[in-house]
Amino acid sequence: MANVTATMVKALRDQTGAGMMDCKTALAENDGDMEAAVDWLRAKGLSKAAKKADRVAAEGLVAIAGSAGKGVVVEVNAETDFVARNEMFQSMVRTIADVALTVGGDFDALSNANYPGTSKTVAEQLQEMVGQIGENMTLRRTAGFEVSPGVVSTYMHSAVAPGLGRIGVLVALESSGDAEKLEALGKQIAMHVAATNPLSVDIDGLDADVVERERSVFREQAKESGKPENIIEKMVEGRVRKFYEEAVLLKQAFVIDPDNTVEAAVKAAEADAGAPVKVAGFVRFALGEGVEKEESDFAAEVAAAVSG
Description:
By secondary structure, this protein is α+β, with helices and mostly antiparallel strands. 47% of the residues lie in helices and 20% in strands.
C-alpha cells in the first residue's frame, strides 16, 4: 500500500472539495493514485462540493451563542436565502456557533475543531453538507469576547430562529456590578450597534488612516469657501467632531434615548449596576457584507436549462 502523505491529501481535497478523511480513504483505497482517487470520490458522490466551489455564497445565516461572561458570533454563507430556512442548515450553523463558544471565536481553531457527534472537523462537516444540500457553503468568519467580571450581551436582528438571523451583535461590558442590570444595558447597546454600525468604541479605537482621510476631505471642502486658513482649520475640526459623533459608539446619540449619548447612558447605568461600567468592545456581523454578489439573468438561466 502506498504511503499517503498530508500533501497528497491536501492536493486531492483542493481538487475535489471532498472532506479530509474521505480524501485520505480514497488515496489509501487506490494506492496513492490521484486520478483513481478522484474517480473513487466521484463514484461515491463525495466530490460534489468541487463543482459548486466557484459559486458565490453571500446568503446563509449569522449565529450567536453566549454563556456567563463570554459570547461568539459566526457567519456561515450559502448561495440562496432558501437555504437559511432549511432546518438541517440551521441546525448545523447553530452547532457551529456552540463549538465556536468553546474555542473563543478563533477562526482556525473553529475550522479544525471536532463537529459534535462525528469524526469530522467543522470544515469537513460543512463540505459534506454542500453535497447533501446542493449549494456552495463557506464558514466565513467568527469573533468572540470573554470578560471577567462582566457580561457579553448578544442581539440578533432579523432573526429567522432563536440565535440565527441576518445581523448578529456582541457587546462586552467589564464591570463588577449587578449582572442582570449589565445584561439589560448590554442588550440595549447591542440593539443600538445593530442600527448604527459604529466604527469603534471610542475615538482612540478609530483607524488613524480613516480619520486622516476624513480630515483631508473636510479640509478640501472648507477651502472651497475661500475663508482664511485659521477659519478653515476651525471648520475642519468642527466637521471632525461631527464625524466622531457619527462613527464612534460612545459619542453617538443613543438610539434608545436620543437626547443622550451612549457614553452618558453608560454613566447613568452605573448607579443601577452598583459599579463602574466599561464598554470593552463590540462586534457586528451583517450577513454577506463585503461579498460581491453575482447579478443573475433569470430568463437566461431558464433558457439555458430548457435548451439542456
